[in-house]
Design brief:
251 residues, mainly beta, Jelly Rolls, eight-stranded antiparallel sheet
Length: 251
């Protein structure tokens, strides 16, 4: 071994030894929180398919899980808006909601009169459904807007007649005993795989004719799909109730 190589080897050996010594001196941080083991949930075969713990609200067969579901047309695995709004028979609070929709292939009307529907979380907080391809309207009323509160960050709409997806994560508001808001509602919306709202803080209920405002309500309420006079189609709707995992902090 030449002198140069020996020097390089010796330097490397010293560095490794020094690193090992430092590692022995580093103490691992531990929070002391005792966490429960996370529940195992089998995912769907694809991201569109419901996980094992999901409540399937519409699987293409019928709208038996919805009040006034008989007012809509169910055909070939698709539910089409007809006479009225429909509302889930079950109530939900914090949740993950997946739904697929298509605005009419035949383009009729303009603005808010074209491919209009909406998904109302807890029956009060609307994520707008609209044909928003070459269809000017007010921005906080276009597709994927939190109605009258915020436009989507980007317009991720597909064209008329094409199937689209909403994946929504919703945190319900909390109210104090006196009716005041203890914690506001939050919503994250992914439209066709694109994040368009990231943990957006709702200012209250979404209304057409007045500013947003909170009104004390139950911890869980039904989800509502809107009839706005346009034959919007829906398929593959499911929801999961969600809750943060809680650990025991050290005394």
């Amino acid at each position: 071994m030449t002198g140069t190589r020996a020097a390089v080897w010796a330097t490397g050996a010293v560095a490794v030894a020094a690193s090992a010594a430092v590692a022995l001196q580093v103490k691992e941080y531990k929070s002391g929180i005792v966490w429960p083991e996370p529940k195992v949930v089998a995912p769907g075969k694809t991201d569109r398919d419901p996980p094992a713990d999901a409540v399937v609200l519409f699987d293409g067969k019928d709208l038996s899980r919805w009040d006034k579901g008989e007012n809509w047309e169910v055909k070939d695995g698709v539910a089409t808006v007809r006479k009225s709004d429909i509302t889930t028979k079950d109530a939900f609070g914090d949740c993950q909601l997946h739904l697929e929709f298509a605005t009419p292939e035949k383009v009729e009307g303009k603005g808010q009169g074209r491919g209009n529907s909406g998904v109302f979380l807890m029956g009060k907080y609307e994520v707008q459904i609209l044909d928003s391809v070459d269809n000017p309207t007010y921005f906080d009323g276009q597709a994927a807007a939190v109605y009258k509160q915020s436009p989507p960050m980007v317009n991720a709409s597909r064209g008329p007649g094409e199937w689209q997806t909403y994946d929504i994560v919703f945190t319900a508001p909390r109210f104090a005993p006196d009716g005041k808001v203890a914690k506001p509602a939050y919503v994250t919306v992914v439209h066709n795989g694109v994040v368009v709202h990231n943990h957006f803080e709702l200012l209250g209920g979404t209304f057409f004719d007045r500013p947003p405002a909170y009104e004390k309500h139950a911890e869980r309420l039904p989800i509502r799909l809107q009839n706005h006079g346009n034959p919007v189609r829906f398929r593959n709707i499911w929801v999961r109730e969600i809750a943060p995992i809680e650990g025991k902090k050290p005394q």
